[in-house]
Design a protein that fits this description.
Strand content: 25-35%
Number of strands: 13
Distance between the termini: 26 Å
Oligomer: single chain
Helix content: 10-25%
């Protein structure tokens, strides 16, 4: 598919805030990178040993929730405009092949934000790794986190029950405890005035994630998070040429649940001049 000729970067919307852990968060890391006795599933850590949330985990979960909430779960092509999932149920597609040639049916808002390897168009969404707010952790270390077995995490013991013998087989799951905060940043590139509408899809994804889970063992209690103290700023291309200031799109910080009507988005869109 040929790239649209008028695609030119107009600016970037920066979405920043806190991911607040509501139940223990388990995003797995490498067992060889961490030597903790008894832990079967260690959490992912940076070079300093501090847990973090990979941008890929946030991006992948949001995409999955948006796709499954908007389109039917199927993996066969059907020209009804609703697309299909690939054979591994990894990505939702709008493509078909005719004589070994890939034909794109359409490019929807999810594809624009998260990308598609067969679409010759830039993906708009950039998902940074979310770093643990160490200052907040240390401030609350002797109250919220005083009983942690490990430096930043807890050891949750679960049992797998043998259905024949009813024997319990214990397993250890390392989790970031409730109350911990991570600082997240999502950037949305704008190539046209229509791209402003993609903010609605992004925040729908954040809302869906709040009522789902992040990481592993979500159906067993882990991974509930909330997005709080969010700030929304717009940086036009002129900002990077030092000729225009950053524009605050909201007067105060807000939580995802504060967005409850279309007018909220209209007020934000009116401040983005493209």
């Amino acid at each position: 598919m040929n790239m649209t000729n008028d695609l030119q970067l107009k600016g970037k919307v920066l979405i920043t805030g806190n991911i607040v852990v509501r139940t223990g968060l388990a995003i797995g890391g490498s067992k060889t990178a961490l030597n903790i006795g008894g832990i079967d599933s260690p959490v992912i850590r940076d070079a300093k040993g501090v847990p973090y949330i990979p941008g890929s985990s946030l991006k992948g979960k949001m995409r999955s929730l948006l796709e499954t909430s908007k389109y039917p779960l199927r993996n066969e092509y059907d020209s009804d405009g609703k697309g299909y999932f690939d054979e591994k149920m990894v990505i939702h597609r709008f493509i078909k092949k005719e004589n070994d040639k890939v034909i794109i049916e359409k490019i929807d808002d999810i594809t624009k934000i998260f990308g598609d390897p067969d679409v010759n168009e830039p993906e708009r969404g950039i998902f940074r790794d979310a770093w643990l707010d160490v200052e907040h952790f240390e401030k609350n270390k002797h109250e919220l986190f005083k009983n942690l077995e490990l430096e930043y995490t807890e050891d949750k013991i679960e049992n797998a029950i043998d259905r024949i013998t009813a024997k319990a087989n214990p397993r250890h799951l390392e989790r970031v405890p409730p109350g911990v905060q991570f600082r997240f940043e999502i950037i949305l590139d704008l190539y046209s005035g229509e791209d402003k509408e993609l903010l609605k899809t992004l925040f729908t994804g954040l809302k869906l994630l709040e009522d789902d889970y992040l990481g592993a063992s979500g159906t067993r209690g882990s991974g509930k998070v909330s997005f709080e103290n969010i700030k929304l700023n717009y940086r036009p291309v002129e900002f990077y040429k030092s000729s225009q200031a950053e524009i605050a799109l909201t007067d105060t910080s807000f939580n995802v649940r504060d967005i409850n009507n279309i007018q909220w988005f209209e007020d934000v869109f009116n401040k983005i001049n493209i």
